[in-house]
Design a protein that fits this description.
Elements (H helix, E strand, L loop, with lengths): L1 H9 L1 H18 L4 H6 L5 H11 L5 H13 L13 H36 L4 H15 L2 H15 L15 H27 L2 H8 L4 H38 L5 H10 L3 H29 L1 H7 L1
Helix pairs in contact: 2-5, 2-13, 6-7, 6-9, 6-11, 7-9, 8-9, 8-11, 9-11, 11-12, 11-13, 12-13, 13-14
Length: about 300
Amino acid sequence: MFRYIRNRLLMLIPVILGVTFLVFYIMSFSPGDPAAIILGDNASAESIAQLQEELGLNEPVIVQYAKYMKKCVTGDLGESYATGRDVFEEVMSRLPNTFALTFWAMIVAIIVSIPVGIISATKQYSLVDSISMIAALIGVSMPNFWFGLLMIMLFSLNLGWLPSGGASSYISLIMPAITIGVSCAANITRTTRSSMLDVIRQDYIRTAKAKGVNKKKVVRKHALRNALIPVITVIGLQFGNLLGGAVLTETVFSWPGVGRLIVDAIKAKDTPMVLGCLIVFAVCFSLVNLLVDILYGYIDPRIKAKYE
């Protein structure tokens, strides 16, 4: 198990290198000059040229990237072009807000999706199953930002029940968490239904029913545990989708998280801030996938035996 975890952590290195280089290269060709953005519209050409020299913006892209990664190895993610603050400190100050939003969105998704998926599988082709699958299809099809705007119009502007944005209290979490949790719930519901259908058709399930075991007990104790492997896989992958979805959702709801920080940094062509956010996202996503793989072993002993 230790060797497996070590190898997975080492795989982070090429992932981070690939992601950062691609983003660094794209940002270098995006319109706008960071030095001109920092100094403002009234800055002279000499001031802009001097700042470019200080920041190393006049050097080739590959040289800039090499210098940046050399700093990253020592734990220095650089300083923001826009604010001058340390990138790592800025990202870490926003990360708890993004994790809180992602956590509650995942809770919403799991609470809704797994029971609905189980009921749909056990009542296949019924009216409940049809309604559930239609709702799941709608949830997958809806863009997060569009659904978020609809919620703001209904619950903030028309009914006045919830704040339209900000992070003044935990109540402010309700709409953004539901917004990005709905699309996630739709995917998990479909996976849960499909996995449960495969399991409840197995011989050992039919044998348990033939012996007179209570139907609810068969589903809860025998079928569900064996159906959870693909469901957990999807939940782990959805974590990354929630982080990505939070970028637009945090902007719509003015939520002070890393997603909104990325949007603001892209507008300002703040390359160090964008790269710092993406590095943190890549590390978080990889660690969650590692935890999901480890969790497999506790659910299915056969997978644990492979690690050993």
